[in-house]
Selenocysteine lyase/cysteine desulfurase (Kutzneria kofuensis), 427 residues
Amino acid sequence: PTDIPTVPAVVGARLSVPLVTGDRVTYANLDHAASAPCLEQVRDAVDELLPWYASVHRGAGFASQVSTKVYEQARDTLRRFVGARSSDTVVFTRNTTDSLNLLAKSLPRRTSVVLFDTEHHAALLPWRGPNVRRVQTPESPAAAVPALEAALKLCPEGPRLVVVTGASNVTGELWPVADLAAVARRYGARIALDAAQLAPHRPVDIKALDVDYVALSGHKLYAPYGAGALIGRADWLQAAEPYLVGGGATKNVVDWGDHLGVAWSAVPERHEAGSPNVVGVHALAAACDTITRHGWDRIVAHEQALLTRLREGLRTIPGLHELSIFHGDHDRVGVVSFTIHGHEAGLIAAALSAEYGIGVRDGAFCAHVATRRLLDRVDATEQRALRASLGLGSTVEHVDRLVAALRTLVTEGPKWTYAQQDGRWVP
Ligand code: PMP
């Protein structure tokens, strides 16, 4: 079709992969939700920096000056990318998991935490204990608002934090973040947005959403691994002990004989001890810049056109059930999880890879509670689902290949026989 906008190109778009027959086909990467392929502009930006990277904030040499500048420019880029307030801090982390753990370690004592029970483990597990309230999955995005309000009413006086996912990594469904933030405000709570799946697919604007923190990962945003960010209010992070201790997090260390006197740095350096990942954050910033320059309208239109085609195709597969958190059809990013009655997800995923060169994910997607609950609803016989996820590397051919391959696998079965090895199916 000619009505699907072109989008920034990813590295490896024409990579060929071996099939079990010995033939090769171009790889159909339908696993963007796990990690997205790198953009060509990101690779070029990294290439340019590689000869120059050196110690950030510490060295006087030219390369150190270049790296320090690149690192701090990346902070500004991230700030712009999420529309941060001027008072917000941008702490570079390894990924969303790291960002949310940092926030969890920085909460004032006895902060009440409220979250929905469908969260990804990265947002579900850092807060545990008596001060945490898990809200049952609501039936619709609109029903999430009163459900959150009811939970906030039960919170004792004191600091409160709501944690919410922007887009589910299981179903792609969007949560009504601005409405949830408005409720949080009314009850004096802060709100942290897990934007791991939202930021690669939709614009995130801290001020427009009125959220306090945003956590995201570079590797889901078309940059390689190792860099993420926590962006938001500085005060709790400033009052907290450094997340890691070591060089970079300190202004001064004095030997008082029986103990060391340490003056910790202010945020963001306070939580960035050790030599930082300057190449990683440069890559992340290059990805943000490329997306912003290209424009969200075209990126969203590309993905939504492919998503519609994918979902329509999946509906024609006998026995296939798409998973949804909410009842009815609601706005979602390009992530679709499904089961196929009578077919084991792991085996289908293995056959898609071995016989068709298609990469999907199978399992419970680091969101065990959510995935199992959704599987129970469709009366699945197993604890695993399949997930196809779209992004800038996706094409009409990838989508059509998946739908055709699933139809053949379901109606005729795999062409090869598969055996289980270390919990995975191999031909
Ligand atoms: N939250 C969501 C919604 C995610 O999809 C993921 C990654 N699957 C994470 C958090 C964690 O991201 P990372 O593994 O990059 O820390």
